[in-house]
Structure formats: structure tokens, C-alpha cells
Amino acid sequence: MQTKLRWGVLGAAAIAVKKVIPAMQHSNWTEVTAIASRDLNRARQAAESLRITKAYGSYEELIDDPEVDAIYNPLPNHLHVPWTIKAAEAGKHVLCEKPIALNVAEVRQLIAVRNRTGVKIGEAFMIRSHPQWLRARELVRAGEIGELRAIVGAFSYFNRDPKNIRNVPEYGGGGLMDIGCYPINTSRFLFEREPQRVVGLLENDPDMKTDRLGSAILDFAPGQAIFTCSTQLVPYQRMQILGTKSRIEIEIPFNAPPDQPCRIFVDDGSDLRGRSARIEEFPICDQYTLQGDAFSRAVREHTEVPVPLEDALANMQVIDALFRSAAGSGWQSPASI
Q1: Where in the chain is the domain with CATH 3.40.50.720?
Q2: pTM, 2 dp
Q3: pLDDT of residue 162
Q4: How much is the pLDDT for 2?
Q5: Positive or negative: CA dihedral 324, 327, 328, 331
């Protein structure tokens, strides 16, 4: 029987204590053994509620624990790189939340550290482990929809709390970084290549100065991906994958529920009301459990992690290019960064 990878968690962020840790505790390959917070009482409370053995009052203490093999880093965006580097230099593997860095230069720093230390570092795009996305790519590869020509997506929620880290520019806040990274990543995942050029339009909140509404076109030549994301719109998410013969619609593409089945629709368009669609339903699963298993297996079996730093770099190149484009520079080539 395989030995479970022992995980430590930096911080008691909501995504960690409410989603990721409980999911990883149901994993076959992971064991969460420690959690740290700059507030020791908060760490102890989280450890008690989640039945975690160790609680630390500093991130350094957790990273120095010899009984921790890997670190999950869900800290605010601006702390991703410095704490991932500290963990890697201590010999820990790191799964870091998305976006893994604030810009391309920071991702290159992480690549250099990974290469020097020999640890594994991955970006936590949990969607890449979910069966609905793996199936969508399988259908595209098999020619089920004909030639993939367009991907159209939307992802939004409403949050205008100035204290929320997503609304603080210095913390790497804003819609493009927080949720725009998803349609970028999944479009690249399905086209299986990088866009030649991109163009974007962003509108900033007048008070908080973070981008609250953004739209982009990614030119994959001959295909295109188009998406809109917003931190101040009605909560909504959907992805349409359009081919020359059929389309695939992913009903809940990003926040796939862990307690009910997920569905995709494969439709040849013969009924414009969508009644011609074939529904494929996926059994209940938790994409955070699958993500933890996949990363841990990669460590134990000495294989590549699901979303390696090279992929993170390519995603960040698109994000950086869209920021430049939205600043008035028109079409941009991500590869030039």
C-alpha cells in the first residue's frame, strides 16, 4: 500500500478550511497533518475543528517541521511566491493556489527555485482533475464536435467589500487574476496550444481600483476563445465549446459541486432550444480530493504534477498580455513576455 503524502497548510483561509482540507481528508494519497496561522489561536481552532494533529503560530514553524512532506499554499496572491520559495528551499513540495504569482517574472523565479531544489511545485487549478473537463477534452480530441473553432465563457460573482483580498490591488486583487485565469486556463487546455495574440478590455472600480469587469479575445489561429469575467455581476458561470459539427456546454465549469453530479451537454444544434443535446452526467466527486491525490501521486511516483510551472508560466503570460492590452496597447503576443 502506498504511503500517504503528509501535508501542511499555510493559513486558515476559507478555501482551505471549508473546501480543500476536508476534501483532502477523504483522499487515498494525502494526509493533512499540520496547519499554521500567524494567529496561533486561529490555527488551533482550525486544527481542532478539522481534526488536524499539529497547529503552528507561524508559517516558518510549519515549513521547518520534518514530518511535513508538502505544503498547500492558499495565502493571498501577493504571498504565493515568497512563501512557496521558502517552502521549496526547505525541501517541501508545494501546491499553490491560482494565480500562482503576480506576473511572469515571479513565475520564472519559481521555476529557477524548483530546478535548483528539485522539489515539485504546481498550480492549484483543481478543474484540471475533474472528470467533466477530462471528458470534454477527450471529446474534442476524438473529433466529436468536428473541428474546435471557438470557446465562449462567462464567470462572475458580486463582491464589493473593500476589505476582501480580492478587492485590494496590492494583494493582486481584481477579476482577471481571480477568475479570468480560469477561462484562460481551460481554453489553453482544450486547444492544447498557446494563443498567438490576445486583446482585452478592463473596467476598474472607481474606489478600489481593481478590475471589476473584463472581456478578452484569445487568438489560437484558427480558433478563438472569448470570455467575460466580473467581480460585480450576478453570480454565473458557463463554458461553451463550439465545433464545426457540435458543441459542448459545461453546466458548472469551475465551482463544480462536491455533493451532486455534474453535467455536460453535447449538442449537434438540430434543435435550437437545445432539446437535441445528449446529456453526460458524472458521478459525485470532489475536485479538491482528486487534485490532492493527483499531486501526491506525482510526488510518490516521480511523475509530473497536473499543472506544472511551465503551464503556470504560459497562463500568466496571457494574463500579463491582457493587462498590457487593456492599458491601451492593443493586440499583444503572450510569448513575447
Answers
A1: 5-124
A2: 0.96
A3: 96
A4: 59
A5: positive
Per-residue confidence band for 3, with pLDDT thresholds at 50, 70 and 90 = confident
The single residue listed with the C-alpha cell 473537463 is: 133
> What does 176-200 look like in DSSP terms, one character per residue?
IIIIIHHHHHHHHHHHTS--SEEEE
The answer to whether residue 54 is catalytic is no
Q: Rounded to 10 degrees, what is the CA torsion of 255, 171, 98, 202?
A: 70
Residue 121 has pLDDT above 70, yes or no: yes
Residue intervals of the chain classified under CATH 3.30.360.10 are: 127-284+317-336
What is the CATH code of the structural domain delimited by 5-124?
A: 3.40.50.720
Write out the E strands in 37-190. Answer: 54-56, 70-73, 93-96, 121-123, 148-158
**Catalytic residue from among 4, 54, 98, 120:** 98
Question: Quick check: 135 and 261 in contact, CB under 8 A?
Answer: no
Give, in words, the CATH class of 127-284+317-336. alpha beta
